[in-house]
Design a protein that fits this description.
Length: 403
C-alpha cells in the first residue's frame, strides 16, 4: 500500500528559523545538496555555517548556527524585499521551486511588516529578519523540505511566549507585532516561559508550510529530530521537535481532523442563542449543538458545542467568549470518519428540489436527502403537509438518482 510522508512539528518551546533548519537537517536533509544550495547564495557577509550537537535540559538536539564576520555582525544590512529577491534568484544551485517558494515566504513577511507599520512592501526595510542569517534560515528550511520530499505537514499549536522583547523599534510586548500579524488564524498559546519563543521568521515559516493544525496523524513514526534554540530554559528544553510519520494513503480518503469547542452556560437568556448560533454557521463552523444539562446548585444550563476545522479554534473561541456569558472555552482535537458528499438539484413533478447525496469511498450512493427548504417551499405551494411532501420527494429522488 502506498504511504504518505507526513512531517509533524511540535513547537512547544516556540519556533525560530534556525531551530526549524536544524530539526529538518536531523531528519535526513544534511547532505551535499543542502550545503551546496546554501553556499550558492551570493551574500556579501560570507557567513560561516555550523551544525553542532548540543544538549538542552537533557535532550539531544542539533544547533544550526550562522556566524557572521564581526563588522557585519554589529551592522546588519537592512535589505529591501527587492534586494532579498535578487539574492535568492541568483543562487544557481537552488531549484526554481525552492527559489520561488522562498521568495513567496519573504513576501508574506514583508506584507506583515507593511501592515504593522502602515507602509508598502516596496518600502519595507527588513531589520532583524533581513540579515543574512534569516535569508539562510528561510531558504534553508525550504531546501530541506524539498530534499525530504514531504507530502504533508501537520503542526501542533505554537507557543508564542510572553513578557517583552527588545527590537529595532524599542521594547515591545510578546508576541512582537510582526509575529502577531503573521500568526493570525493559527492555534497558539503563551507557553510556560516568559520570553519571546516564536520569532517572525519562525512564524512565517509555519504559516507558509503547514497544511493542517492539530494532533499527529495515525501512522508509523520513522524518524525524530530536535532543533535547538539559542537559550537554555530551566523548566523545559528549548527545542523544536519534528517527526516523520508514514501514513497509509487510504486513510486520508474518509478521515479528517476536526476541533470540538465547548462551554457551559447557565446565566444567559435563551434568545441570545438565536443570534450566536446562526453566526457560528455564517463564520464557517461545521456544526453546533445546544445540549441541555443540570449544573451546580441544580441550575438548568446549556452546553454550547461548536465543531470546526482545527485552524478555526482561535477564531471561534474568541467569538464565543465575546458573544456569550461564559468565562472560558475548552477544546479538543478529534478524528471523524465521513461519507463523501455532494449537493445537486433535481426536477420533480412538484418543482425543483435541492438534495444532499452521500457516497462511500467506492462511489456507491448510500444516502439521498431532500433539503428542508425545498420541501417546505413545495409543501406551501401545493397545499400539502410538510411531512407528506418530504416523503413524496424522497421516494421520487431515490428512484431518480439510482437511474
Amino acid at each position: 500500500m502506498k504511504e504518505l510522508k507526513v512531517l509533524y512539528i511540535e513547537p512547544f518551546s516556540g519556533i525560530a528559523g534556525d531551530m526549524l533548519v536544524a530539526a529538518l537537517l536531523g531528519l535526513g536533509a544534511d547532505c551535499k545538496e543542502f550545503w551546496k544550495g546554501i553556499a550558492s547564495l551570493p551574500l556579501m557577509e560570507k557567513p560561516e555555517l555550523k551544525l553542532t550537537k548540543v544538549v538542552r535540559n537533557g535532550i539531544n538536539a542539533l544547533n544550526f548556527n550562522v556566524i557572521l564576520h564581526e563588522d557585519h555582525h554589529h551592522h546588519h544590512h537592512h535589505r529591501t524585499l527587492a534586494e532579498i529577491e535578487k539574492v535568492i534568484r541568483s543562487a544557481k544551485q537552488l531549484s526554481p521551486e525552492v527559489r520561488k517558494r522562498s521568495i513567496g515566504i519573504f513576501r508574506r513577511l514583508a506584507e506583515a511588516e507593511a501592515r504593522v507599520h502602515g507602509s508598502h512592501i516596496k518600502h519595507v526595510h527588513f531589520h532583524e529578519v533581513g540579515a543574512a542569517d534569516a535569508i539562510i534560515d528561510i531558504v534553508g528550511a525550504v531546501l530541506c523540505l524539498e530534499i525530504l520530499d514531504v507530502d504533508r505537514i501537520v503542526s501542533a499549536p505554537v507557543a508564542l511566549g510572553s513578557g517583552t522583547v527588545r527590537s529595532a523599534h524599542g521594547i515591545l510586548p510578546v508576541p512582537a507585532p510582526a509575529t502577531a500579524e503573521i500568526i493570525k488564524g493559527c492555534p497558539t498559546y503563551p507557553g510556560a516561559v516568559s520570553c519571546e519563543l516564536t520569532t517572525p521568521t519562525g512564524a512565517v515559516m509555519l504559516k507558509s508550510i503547514v497544511d493542517e493544525w492539530g494532533m499527529p496523524p495515525s501512522g508509523v513514526i520513522s524518524r525524530i529530530s530536535c532543533g535547538a534554540g539559542t537559550k537554555d530554559f530551566k523548566i523545559q528544553p528549548n527545542v523544536l521537535r519534528v517527526s516523520m510519520i508514514r501514513c497509509p494513503v487510504s486513510r486520508k480518503a474518509d478521515i479528517e481532523k476536526i476541533a470540538v469547542l465547548e462551554c457551559n452556560i447557565d446565566d444567559m437568556p435563551g434568545e441570545s442563542f438565536s443570534y450566536v448560533c446562526p453566526e457560528l454557521l455564517r463564520m464557517g463552523a461545521l456544526d453546533y449543538a445546544l445540549i441541555p444539562v443540570y449544573m451546580k446548585k441544580g441550575r438548568p444550563g446549556i452546553i454550547l458545542q461548536v465543531i470546526c476545522r482545527p485552524d478555526g479554534i482561535a477564531r471561534f473561541a474568541e467569538f464565543v467568549l465575546r458573544e456569550t456569558s461564559t468565562l472560558g472555552v475548552r477544546y479538543r482535537l478529534e478524528e471523524r470518519k465521513f461519507l463523501m458528499r455532494d449537493e445537486r438539484e433535481y426536477e420533480t413533478p412538484w418543482g425543483m428540489v435541492g438534495a444532499k447525496l452521500a457516497f462511500d469511498r467506492k462511489g456507491k450512493l448510500l444516502k439521498c436527502k431532500p433539503e428542508f427548504e425545498s420541501c417546505a417551499r413545495l409543501a406551501k405551494r401545493t397545499g400539502t403537509g410538510y411531512l407528506s411532501m418530504a416523503e413524496k420527494i424522497k421516494f421520487h429522488l431515490k428512484a431518480k438518482v439510482k437511474k
